[in-house]
Amino acid sequence: MSVQQYEVGAIVEGKVTGIKPFGAFVALDGNKQGLVHISEIAHGYVKDINEALSVGDEVKVKIKSVDQESGKISLSIRDTLPAPEKSESRPQSQAPRQSKSSGRPAQQSSNDTQGFNTLEDKLKDWLKQSNEIQADLNKRVRK
Questions:
Q1: Calpha distance 110→72 (Å, rounded)
Q2: Which of 75, 81, 84, 130 can pair with 34 through a Cys bridge, CB separation 3.0 to 4.6 Å?
Q3: What CA–CA distance (Å, rounded) separates 124 from 129?
Q4: What digits encode the pLDDT tens for the residues 47-70?
């Protein structure tokens, strides 16, 4: 199959043939493979690609782009998965992060598991978290 026969937006089956820190190579047929960038693996943050994929895995991918000149094909696994429901609670698989200063679990906003957020949203979360920490410190000083 030539690159021209792969249509952007099509969902196809492939096999993971290689893993690098930045993404996974997926064979679409005997001659052609594409790259799934680490940001296109799941809806949430993927720290280590090896925890999500292994060489030999059969995966469903969506064709994001095809460069006719170079023959490079950009793929997405994330686009074949249903979008996660927004939830106020943290999934049980995530352990609370430890605060470096106090050793206590750090405050975690409900948006941390939802992937990318706007800077404005993050700033609101950071200000709220900062105010909570400051209020806690003020209570300790008054005691």
A1: 37
A2: 75
A3: 9
A4: 899 888 999 999 999 999 998 888
